[in-house]
Write a structure and sequence with these properties.
By secondary structure, the chain is α/β, with parallel strands linked by helices. About 30% of the residues lie in helices and about 20% in strands. The chain has helices spanning about 5-15, 25, 35-45, 50, 80-95, 100-120, 125-155, 175-180, 195-205, 245-250, 270-285, 320-330, 425-430; strands at about 55, 60, 160-165, 185-190, 210-215, 230-235, 255-265, 290, 310-315, 345-355, 385-390, 400-405, 415, 435-445, 450-455, 460-465.
Amino acid sequence: MNDDQRTQVRDTARYLRNVRPIDPEELCEYVEGQPHPAAVRQVLREQAFDLELIERDDAFVPVPDEPLDVPFDGVHIPAEHTERLERLLCERFGVDWATGESGERLRETIVQIKEDYLNQRPVEYDRDTALAYAVYHLYDNYAVTQHALAEVVRGDLLGHRLRVLDVGAGVGGPALGLLDLLEPALIEYHAVEPSAATAVFDALVEPAPNQSVVVHRSRAESFEPTGEYDLVLFANVLSELDDPVSTVDRCLGSLADEGTCLLLAPADRNTATGLRAVERTLAERGYTVYAPTVRLWPDLSPGPEAEGWSFDVKPDVSVPAVQRRLADSVADSDDADPSAFVNADVQYAYSVLRRDDRRTVAVTPDRSQLTPMADIEDHVSDRIDLLAVKLSHDLGGDNPLFLVGDGSQRIDHYAVLVNETGLNDALGRTPYGAVLAFENTLVLWNDDEEAYNLVVDGETVVDRVG
């Protein structure tokens, strides 16, 4: 099809999109020379993002105006992703990739990757390292991305036409999770990844209809975004950046006015608290924390002493077949623990940032009735009323214990449930990230933890807000 015909297809589609669904077989009749409907369909697919058209069955229809709504009842990883990964492993090591020398090499690489991350050392990727990372991390990265994005979708923050920037895309776990979950949308997806992981990414990430994928083989620190993005994603990469705040801030310069930025990090102390430090600085620069560490007192900022080791926990994924094969191939004589090569946990720290003032729960607390945590020092041994976000699952101990915060705390606060009643059981029942109203809670100082305890007893009422 020549340029004139392509122009005619685009112009006709712009007119017809406001009249009726666009059938390529009909549209070809309006084009000089009447090109084959398949050629017309291909042009419409290539121009779909600019024309704001989504392909449905045999026709193209306008992108819906309402927010994107997708069902999410938990993570279900398609078998085809594992089939592609196994194909790569077989191509590199042979059909018995999990046994012998190749299996041992993969296990050693996985152990080294974990040690490097825990000790905050950079991971240098070659193709074998990328394959080992995919075996161990593809699935939890997929699950984490879907759980975090599901919250963004529930907040009506995404439309049906999305331009996405994924910085530090790795081997493609976040990309697969995102593209599968948001498949009803029209997606132009851009990945930034400079390492050898792109070879694995290219083999694993196959876009569905209404999706396009572009990989930019550039370092995050030097990548220059173009145009506007509706969603900017930094998944498990902040701890690897030389200057994460500046890198995120620069990319957010290309975030649409109503766009969303999602930061993800592993749940370990270093990476999770590192994410909170980045979030705190970006909030000071004017970005709004939509979730989960909502600033309930927008005029007050948390202090640097508040470590904020906060992360969510979701149901485990089913043990992937590739991990089971690698674990099962550990010889009885080996010192290795087979469970070290199984990674089904879904635990992660996250932050959802916006350029507008939207928060997951919009409240306007009254100082005459509620105490901000910034003033908690003046109320030790007092009973007070306050609002707080639940920022952990039960941390264990003699009594249920939960990290909480209101965005103004200078030191960490923990809610301790010493006597559960029907009036305060919301503390244990509500999910991570929920806003809670505490009435008549006792404030104590914990010398051992150097933190404040909010004692929830038979005299305390706890309700969920919003």
